[in-house]
Amino acid sequence: MRHALGLARRAAIEGEVPVGAVLVKDGAVLGEGWNKPIALHDPSAHAEMIAMRAAAAALGNYRVPGTTLYVTLEPCVMCAGAIVHARVSRLVFGARDPKAGAVDSVYDVIARPRLNHVVAWSGGVLEDECGAVLREFFRSRR
Fold first, then answer.
1. Which of 24, 25, 52, 131 shows its CA 20 to 30 Å from the CA of 65?
2. What is the phi-psi region of residue 95: left when phi exceeds 0, alpha when psi lies from -120 to 50, beta otherwise?
């Protein structure tokens, strides 16, 4: 999660909402990313999506079983759906998102028993630090 926080800070420097993500398998980083929808002119360029794309390319497979995704903010509906489709085994997130969180806060996309893959998850890891990065970013924009 500390690595993901560093990526989130990089996003902030670039003027993007500070969210970072790292996808790991057996202790090795397969993919990482930070929010880039503004820079890439791509509404799907969230940190999780970028990390999963990099990992899928590295593995040569659109599925990434046996992986853990660390992300500084609870994923949105789009990212949560992609996490399920990619067959990520475990999700660990920092700050909860009370407006758009799709794991625990607003929606429950990750653990729906009707889906063909259920992702184990933990939330609130380094929550205060992850939330502080976001709050500082938005405070500086006001």
1. 131
2. beta
b/e per residue, 89-124, with b = 16+ CB within 10 A? Answer: bebbbbbbbeeebbbbebbebbeeeeeeeebebebe
Place of tokens 């205060």: 128
77-85 vs 47-59: helix crossing angle, rounded to 10: 20
pLDDT tens figures, 73-102:
999 999 999 999 999 999 999 999 999 999
**How many beta carbons lie within 10 A of that of residue 40, not counting itself?**
12
List active site positions.
48
Note the pTM of the prediction, 2 decimals.
0.95
Residues of the chain with pLDDT under 50: none
- Render the burial of 56-80: b for 16+ CB within 10 Å, e for the rest: beebeeeebeebbbbbbbbbbebbb
Beta bridge partners of 70: 22, 92
Amino acid (one-letter) located at 27:
G
